[in-house]
Amino acid sequence: MIEPLPVAGRPPMQHLQGRVVENRSLGGDLWLLRLQVPDLPPAQAGQFVHLECGADLTLPRPFSILDSHPESQDIDLLYRVVGEGTRRMTGWQPGWVTPLLGPVGRPFTPPPAGMEAVLVAGGVGVAPLDFLARTLVAQGVSVTLFLGMESEAPWPLRQASATETLEAGLALAHLQSRGIASRLASLTARPGWFTGYVTELAAAYLQRLPPDRRARCRLYTCGPLPMMAAVARLAERFGLQGEAALEARMACGFGGCAGCVVLIRAGEKGYYRRVCVDGPVFPLGDVDWQQQGH
Ligand SMILES: Cc1cc2nc3c(=O)[nH]c(=O)nc-3n(C[C@H](O)[C@H](O)[C@H](O)COP(=O)(O)OP(=O)(O)OC[C@H]3O[C@@H](n4cnc5c(N)ncnc54)[C@H](O)[C@@H]3O)c2cc1C
Ligand code: FES
Q: In the CATH hierarchy, which fold is given to the domain comprising 2-104?
């Protein structure tokens, strides 16, 4: 049964201006953009900004917040060039000013005390999970991040030795220096990377954990839909809870147009929810992955 959209309370967000501080290629089609956004309310992992990429482009484009630096009022975005809007962004020079809306959406929720976080990212879906990993570890939560990428990794890698539960392999150096374990997966064989789907890597990790420790894991995911659907199946298989940050084509970005709705289950019922303001983060078990095509 599908019920009409509820009018949910809107999280605080504002129409603001972002001034480009830095915009650099990370190799391939990946770019890192730092914007200074005066008066941006504090941002949390999972939230995004809705960014105008050109005055003549009808719709703004949504990008997850990779990091927030309240002291300098800067935010970082990791973006992949896929079309006209992102292609134009690559030409932005320091000083360029662009209107934006943010921070938009409901962020990830930290796991209850005593639980571990297992993060499964695909491609640029790593942006909100990298932010989440650093946030959680600062709160004393143990975090392991798995990243599947078919292009080069966006950050420097460092060799990590095998532990009781993780095979030896390359890890993201900036996370390793903060005590966050990570491993990389690709469908193409590369030295130090797991060859296969990132969800196979995460499954092998969970399988190897002692059952009482595995039961204390909470899953978080962001990336391509088939990958997140596979993470939802992993959660079912191991009896775990988790959250997924969904993507959808967006128009208004503030809950007004219903252009971004997805089907969310609540028991026997289904409800349409707006990815922009009711999400983008939803409980893994509530997303109707079949309706999403997976
Ligand atoms: C909540 C949210 C967070 C996002 N975070 C990031 C991020 O951190 N980094 C990043 O690189 N991208 C992110 N995206 C996707 C990003 O918004 C799109 O890649 C961007 O809007 C494409 O704009 P464009 O004009 O370059 O491409 P377009 O010319 O508009 O489209 C080119 C291609 O990109 C696909 N596309 C466009 N918009 C979306 C979308 N919203 N979701 C999925 N596919 C899309 C189209 O189907 C098409 O194949 C996010 C999307 C959402 C909804
Ligand atoms: S984009 Fe308009 S309601 Fe989500």
A: Elongation Factor Tu (Ef-tu); domain 3 (2.40.30)
pLDDT in tens, 170-179: 999 999 999 9
For residue 34, the number of C-alpha atoms closer than 13 Å in the C-beta half-sphere is 12
Residues with CB under 6 A from ligand 2: 250-253, 255-260, 274, 276
Enter the pTM of the model: 0.93
Count the Cβ atoms, other than its own, within 10 Å of residue 39: 8
SS3 236: helix
Q: How far is the CA of 62 from the centre of ligand 1 (A)?
A: 7
Find the length of the chain: 294
Q: 2-104 and 116-244 share one CATH topology?
A: no
Testing ligand 1's pocket by substitution, the residue of 25, 47, 63, 129 carrying the most ligand atoms inside 8 A of its CB is 63
Question: Which atom of ligand 1 is closest in space to residue 247's alpha carbon?
Answer: 53
Distance 95 CA to ligand 2 centre (A): 29
CATH architecture label of 116-244? 3-Layer(aba) Sandwich (3.40)
Q: Point out the ligand 2 atom lying closest to the alpha carbon of residue 258.
A: 3
pLDDT digits (tens, 9 = 90+) for 179-218: 999 999 999 999 999 999 999 999 999 999 999 999 999 9
Domain coordinates in residue numbering, the chain: 2-104, 116-244
Tell me: the pLDDT tens digits for 7-49? 344 444 568 999 999 999 999 899 999 999 998 888 999 999 9
Distance separating alpha carbons of residues 206 and 213, to the nearest angstrom: 9
Nearest ligand by distance to the CA of 5? 2
